[in-house]
Amino acid sequence: MAEPSELTRHIESFVDSSRSQAQQAASLDAIVHLVKNDALFIGHLVKEMEMYLTTTDNIIRARGILLLGEVLTRLSSKPLDMANIHSLIRFFTERLADWRALRGAVVGCLALMRRKSGGTVTCSDAKAVVKSFLQNLQVQSLGQHDRKLCFELLECLLECYPKAVVSLGDDLVYGICEAIDGEKDPHCLVLTFHIVEVLVQLFPDPCGPIASFAGDLFSILGCYFPIHFTYPNTEDVDMKRDDLSRALMLAFSATPLFEPFAMRLLLEKLSSSLPTAKVDSLIYLGDCILKYGAERIEKHAGAIWSSLKEALYDSEEDPKLQLTSESRDGGNQIAREALSLLEKIIIQYDDMFLTLITHDEQINMILNNTTNYTSYDEIPMQSKKELLMVGRILYVSTKASISSCNVVFQSFFPRMMETMGLPVEIASESCNSDGNCAVRELHFGCFYICMELLVACRDLILVAEDTKKQFIPTTESYFCLLKQFSTSLSKIFSSILNRSINEADHDVFVHLGVKGLQTLATLPGGYGLILKSTFDNILLRLMSIIISDFGKTLLWKLALKALVHIGSFLHGCDDSEKILSYMDIVTEKIVSLLSSDDFSMPFSLKMEAVSVIGKSGLHYMMKITVKLEDIILIKLSECMIQGNLESAKIVLHILECYSKELLPWIQKNEGFEEVLLHLVVRIWNQVDNCRSLDVDTGGKDLLEAVIKVMKFAVAYCSVENQNIIVDKAYRILLSNPSLQLKGSLLTIHMKGFISTLEVDKLSSRDEWILSLLASVVIALRAQTLIPNLTTFVRLFMITMLEGYTIAAQALSSLVNKLDLMPNGALEEAMDIIFSRNFWGSYETSPERTGRMSHGNEIDLPNFLLGAAHSELLLNHAISGLAWIAKGLLMRGHDRVKDLTMIFLKCLLSEDRMDSFSLNEGSLENSSQQFASTSVMKCAADAFQIIMSDSGICLNRQFYATIRPLYKQRFFSTMMPIFQSLIIQSGSSLSRAMLHRAFAHIICDTPLLAILDSAKRLIPMVLDALTSLSKDVSDKDVLYSLLLIFSGVLTDKNGHEAIVENTSKIINSLIALSAYPHMMLVRETAIQCLAAMSELPHARIYPMRIQVLQAIVKALDDPKRAVRQEAVRCQHAWASIASRSLHF
Question: Which residues form the MMS19 N-terminal domain (predicted)?
Fold first, then answer.
């Protein structure tokens, strides 16, 4: 047992109102812990608290009773014997009369009555609680929290002890009415609404207590409708208007006894000018009508029907916009809820309301008047709104159920057909579906109503088949009517599109015509409702628009969208017969557009049509890709062998469509690997068979397009199929003597290599083979085997030096992925790349030769001296090595350091690099200048290649090996080196190039890594900004670096570093605000200056005049964006004076 003194301390801490809430909560937790662990029994606790529970001190007594109640609340799962439960509930029941200790009493009652097991309150005790509640509590005189507790207690009594409370009859209902009347708090209202909902369900007898008080109860509820609720403070954010409104709606519909009052109120509010009142009335009506029963609703049917028509008519929508919109309600909530209510009513009480609809005088008059107007534009606005209302009503009525569809179709569909003068044609193969069927006059209203009925019928069949898995009997009357008129309707909708329509009516009739054809083509059930010839004619008509009417933008777009909908529908329902027709008529002709020599239709439209049709289903995309493959190979052959420029243009456009539109979609779907493998192999065969390529004119663009498709197609393939592709490419390589020779070279003879570099270019065929081979290697998975890796590496090394960047990218992909390949492939490739023998033989002094010849390492100084008279060769070498370094860096290979040292050597060619090392690998001292400005710039830009993300190779799409945080590691390694080199550099040119290289690294490093080193980097960044601003060729790098600096400036983690360098930063930004070569630099610099105005006053105030003088000049900048930023910056810095006065 616990020591009494300890328990007493906890009790006194809680009942002491001067203690903090934290202390009181700790004491409560301690007592609960004792009871839960059986260190204290509940009976002993009550005895220990007897003085606090019975004292005449109101505050202590209230706190004591509350403590007992809170303890019991936290012991809901702990078993208690029935004797304790009985004595405790009796105590709290009596305490309900003690208004000063009421909260504790209610909390105690709630805690005991909510117990589900381990000791529960009996029905007799619950009845005593109810009686005490009704006799002693004046709920509306209490505070919000106490009222909420009281309502929770009432709710618990009604839900958990219905037998105990029902016996109280009228007294219970009257007491609840008194308790809830006048409540205003949202949290309490939700409880009161639920209390009423549960209460009325306890007395379902129409002659019971609720019948006597129904008017009183509903008068209390009705005053809250519609809910008007705002959020007076933040603590009410968890309470939403929808929560309140739903709770009130459930109370409204809880009993049919509310029907006389609820229906009158809701119908009255439906005529309100407030949109929320209309919407809520429609929602509430939908719930009440379903629960009140047919007998009670029947007497309100006429009023409900009239109110619905009025709500739809007054929904404040533009009829023309709705007629040409995909959405039926246009986002208007009143119309949406009105239509939803109508659908519920018809499903529940179809005979009652369908009679009202079919015999409605207004609807029949509107339909009769449809023949009064041939032009949509001449229809008065009131008539347009009425027509829209009728169309929506008929759509919902038709779609509600099969029986309602039969009634509506029989009542209105033949009438519309007769008005349009359409003949009845029995849908059979003997029907002449090729004849003309055009009406003399276009009556928009007839076409629109007919369209709504057709769409509703189709949607009904689809919903029935999808949700109920049932098939509609062909004997249904609407089915027979559709079958009779489908052919005639298809012809009439086609004739609408053929007719010359005035401009005012053009859009609505075009929408109707195309939508009509689309609806007929998407009728479910194979050819049961529509003939095959009719279906084919619809597709032919839509395709004729695509091919011939591309100048009519709206018609063309709608026809293409209709074809896509039809294709998606057929693909989804797996209608094999119609799919075959669609493939023959649509996909075949769509693909033929790309191969056509007719260039009158813009190729962008051809691409759009092919891509959207293909994406509407796997069947269509498969057909399109197979056909495109044939076209690509035919056109490639024509342009390669015959030099046909038109074929080159066509195949270039097709390849662009393939890579930009089709391949991204294919990569997200399965089943295309064999198709893509076949395409790749056939391209290789095509190149192999063409011994003399004639693609000089525009050949580069065509080759790039083929390369792009090749890479994406190879990347899609599995390892097994990639092995097939590599073997195919290797066999073609072996059959090419010149490329095979390059792949077998062991060393570069520099003099001869330089002399032939400009003149000994690869032939067109050799260039195609090399480029395609490189693109295959780039896209390979790491597990794919490469035969004779040595030949591949040497070929790519030689062609890399000849200026073929794709060869360098292939090499970088190899060294990046070879770690997963067997048989020491990585070491073999690295030996070739870094071999001294490969990098050339050049006659130098014996001293240098002796000094450089030891080891099997890359001899770049010797190579650079040998290539000193060829900037082009040096640039090719540096650029290629940069790609190799990128591949090594991404996988975390140490040899990237050797290549980095090469680039630094080029950057410091004017300087002496004394005692400088990079992780034990040192650069030798050299006083000879062997690098020109262009070579140094190329070496600086090598760091951009290394750090930037590439979309053409070395990415996840092409299975690159990417070590986490590789950029951050390289950044951390290089920054101290660059800092030291920049400080030691004695040449302005070398310093400028070092700054350019430094900027490339910074610009591609994640900002978080830069922020961690902000203090050390800010001075270097400022120096780089100044250096880069001197040469116009550095403007892009300057802008990128300035953007990174702005990120540091605006991030709170860089604040300290910015404050320490305030004056230097401001001076640098002032200079950049007048940078003449790029507007974006000036704009960003001024934005940074504005951000600097937020720094501590003491730091920036001395610079205020200087900044404002610079900004005055920027106010006259020729670019508007710069002037706008200057005004904002001027305002920010001018306000510093007023801030200083306040300070």
Answer: 46-312
Residue 87 contacts by C-beta under 8 Å, 6 or more apart in sequence? none
User: How many helices (DSSP H) and strands (DSSP E) are in the chain?
Assistant: 60, 2
Q: What is the pLDDT of residue 834?
A: 79
Cβ neighbours of 983 (radius 10 Å): 10
Three-state SS annotation for 469-513:
CCCCCCCCHHHHHHHHHHHHHHHHHHHHHHCCCCHHHHHHHHHHH
DSSP state string for 524-577: SSTTSSS-HHHHHHHHHHHHHHHHH-TTSHHHHHHHHHHHHHHHHHHHHHT-HH
Q: Please compute Rg for the chain using Cα positions.
A: 42
Q: What is the DSSP string of 163-221?
A: HHHHTTTHHHHHHHHHHHTT---HHHHHHHHHHHHHHHHH---TTSHHHHHHHHHHHHH
Q: What is the mean pLDDT of residues 544-549?
A: 91
pLDDT in tens, 421-471: 765 554 333 344 444 555 556 778 888 889 899 999 888 888 876 655 555
Q: Compute φ and ψ for 340, nearest 5 degrees.
A: -65, -40
What is the rounded distance in angstroms from the CA atom of residue 737 to the CA atom of residue 759?
19
Q: Among candidates 603, 611, 711, 595, which has minimal Cα distance to 661?
A: 611
As to burial, measured by CB atoms within 10 angstroms (0-12 exposed, 13-18 middle, 19+ buried), residue 1011 is: middle
Q: How many CB atoms lie within 10 A of CB 403?
A: 14
Residue 902 is predicted with a pLDDT of 87
Q: Is the peptide bond before 524 cis (omega within 30 degrees of 0)?
A: no
Instruction: Say if residue 191's pLDDT is above 70.
Output: yes
Burial class (CB in 10 A: 0-12, 13-18, 19+), 426: exposed
Q: What is the mean pLDDT of residues 1135-1140?
A: 62
- 3-state SS class at 917: strand
What is the pLDDT confidence band of residue 910, given thresholds at 50, 70 and 90? low
Sign of the C-alpha dihedral computed for residues 887, 892, 895 and 896 taken in this order: positive
Residue 184: which residues within 8 A CB-CB, separation 6 or more?
A: none
Nearest 5 degrees, angle CA 899-CA 905-CA 906? 100
- pTM of the entire structure? 0.76
Query: In angstroms, how far is the first alpha carbon of the chain from the final one?
Result: 64
Residue 156 CB coordination number (10 Å): 18
For residues 1065 and 1059, what is the distance between their CA atoms, to the nearest angstrom? 9
Containing 922, the helix (H) or strand (E) segment is strand 921-922
**β strands within 596-668, DSSP E:** none
Cβ 147 vs Cβ 140: under 8 Å? yes
Cα–Cα distance for residue pair 943/1040, rounded to 1 Å? 14
* Pick from 678, 573, 562: nearest CA to 622: 678
Q: Would you say 266 and 209 are in contact if contact means Cβ atoms under 8 Å apart?
A: no
For 929-961, b/e burial (b = at least 16 CB within 10 A) is ebbeeebbbbbbbbbbbbbeeeebbbeeebbbb
Query: Helix, strand, or coil here: 360?
Result: coil
pLDDT of residue 396: 92
CA nearest neighbour of 876 among 828, 934, 929: 934
Which backbone phi and psi does 956 adopt, to 5 degrees? -65, -30
Distance CA 711, CA 715 (A): 6
> Which helix (DSSP H) or strand (DSSP E) does residue 245 occupy?
helix 241-252
- Taking the C-alpha atoms of residue 881 and residue 945, their distance in angstroms, rounded to an integer, is 10
- As given in the structure block, the two tokens for residue 949 are 């993300």
pLDDT digits (tens, 9 = 90+) for 1062-1109: 999 999 999 999 999 999 999 999 999 999 999 988 889 888 999 999
- Residue 760 φ/ψ, nearest 5 degrees: -90, 65
How far does Cα 963 stand from its chain's mean position? 28
